[in-house]
Design brief:
Number of helices: 14
CATH class of the largest domain: Alpha Beta
Strand content: 25-35%
CATH superfamily of the largest domain: ATP-grasp fold, B domain
Number of domains: 3
Shape: globular
Strand order of the largest sheet: 13-12-9-10-11-14-21-19
Length: 445
């Protein structure tokens, strides 16, 4: 087992990893920018190293500074969390070269699944259902229009290096395709330094359902059931739950088998998520694979009673996993609490938190790194907490979430708590009959 793990991340996920490491008897190293000097992950780690100014490029994305921190603290493993360098194949490769264990898949696995066009080709080879579309990157707009007419409109233009909804445009005809192509290309180049595009059939009324998988170093891959992430705004998840209200036992069996097939085809090691679009007829299509732990991992932890960070560390240390799939035992819902103003188009709201009272009680979990007196910096993602509720049924879980949200007090900054309070009383959400377009018609009161 590792003696010391450096956490190459910040905030809530860094604190989450530290907690598991402490319970496993593993020492921890926090890295932080000057903007995060007062963050709880810095306070609770055994050691902390400042790696630069607030800019991510000069701190959390600076591989040389992070590797210098590894060297001076003698860490023998690195946990990348999510975001930042978590899916950076070059970083994983450098860790291996320096004989430091990257807690995650190999650089080769990350490359195979990180580039969406390559991932799709890999899934076709593995006979996992994929959305009809181009067989790789498209050379020019003329070829793109030709393919769009072959698979029929509507289509979606996607950046191969994309994420978070950037570099994506929906087109319903040739004219919209031409306009969307130029915009997607520009956005992809600016966001990822890679303007490669491909085209897929746009699935109407889709659910976004992902399967949590884990694979060990000995070829075993299992799934830990699904999460429904259909409540989104601009392709950013707002709420996640397990089990999906859309799921049936037969569909879970089929989708779970496809997710395992996806992992086995690349001999996947570690925790990962296979994401699918599911149409109204319960036909599902591979969308992408995230080769890291997800923001919404607590949802799965609550319904199968497993510490997924611990599982990641055990697999990285060479432990074998139990060769069985998991069914959800309970129902869990996660609300992402962001420092944003839902009444002003979810505009970020950094600043000083003057009062903070988190929800408590049976079946309520809060993952956060903030407290009264903490200043939310303007430089990073605006998520400041995750509120997770668990109950025997979906109805009970929603009722519990309403109660938990009503006693969640954060003052000094605007938050998305009022949005979630409204959502948990929305009849369409309560019915479970929604898809990824839900937020298009949702009006904030």
């Amino acid at each position: 087992m590792f003696e010391k793990i450096l956490i190459a991340n910040r905030g809530e996920i860094a604190l989450r990893i530290i907690r598991t490491c402490k319970e496993m008897g593993i020492k921890t190293v926090a890295v932080y920018s000057t903007a995060d000097a007062e963050s709880l992950h810095v306070r609770f780690a055994d050691e902390a190293v400042c790696i630069g100014p607030p800019s991510s490029a000069e701190s959390y994305l600076n591989v040389s500074k992070i590797m210098a921190a590894v060297e001076i603290t003698n860490a023998d493993a690195v946990h990348p969390g999510y975001g930042f360098l978590s899916e950076n194949a070059d970083f994983a490769e450098i860790c291996t070269e320096y004989n430091v264990k990257f807690i995650g898949p190999s650089a080769d696995m990350i490359r195979k699944m990180g580039d969406k066009a390559t991932a799709k080709a890999t899934m076709i080879k593995a006979k996992v259902p994929v959305v009809p579309g181009s067989k790789g990157l498209i050379a020019n707009v003329k070829k793109g229009i030709e393919i769009a007419n072959e698979i029929t409109y509507p289509v979606i233009i996607k950046a191969t290096a994309g994420g978070g909804g950037k570099g994506m445009r929906i087109a319903w005809n040739d004219e919209e395709f031409e306009d969307g192509w130029d915009k997607a290309k520009q956005e992809a180049k600016a966001s990822f330094g890679n303007d490669g595009l491909y085209v897929e059939k746009f699935i109407e009324e889709p659910r976004h359902i992902e399967f949590q998988i884990i694979g060990d170093q000995y070829g075993t891959v299992v799934h830990l059931s699904e999460r429904d992430c259909s409540i989104q705004r601009r392709h950013q998840k707002l709420v996640e739950e397990c089990p999906s209200p859309f799921m049936t036992k037969a569909l879970r069996k089929k989708m779970g088998a496809a997710a395992i097939k996806a992992g086995k085809c690349i001999k996947y090691e570690g925790l990962g998520t296979v994401e699918f679009l599911v149409d109204k007829n319960k036909e599902f299509y591979f969308m992408e694979m995230n080769t890291r732990i997800q923001v919404e991992h607590p949802v799965t932890e609550e319904v199968i009673d497993h510490d997924l960070v611990k599982e990641q560390i055990l697999v990285a240390a060479g432990e074998k996993i139990a060769g069985k799939n998991y069914e959800p035992k309970m129902h869990a819902i996660e609300c992402r609490i962001n420092a944003e103003d839902p009444h002003a188009d979810f505009r970020p709201s950094p600043g000083l938190i003057t009062s903070f009272h988190s929800s408590k009680g049976q079946g309520v979990r809060v993952d956060t790194h903030v407290y009264a007196g903490y200043s939310v910096p303007p430089y990073y993602d605006s998520m400041i907490a995750k509120l997770i509720c668990r109950a025997k049924t979906r109805e009970e879980c929603i009722t519990r979430m309403r109660r938990a949200l009503d006693e969640f007090i954060i003052e000094g900054v605007k938050t998305t708590v009022p949005f979630h309070q409204q959502l948990m009383r929305n009849e369409k959400f309560i019915s479970g009959k929604f898809d990824t377009s839900f937020m298009n018609d949702f009006e904030i009161e």
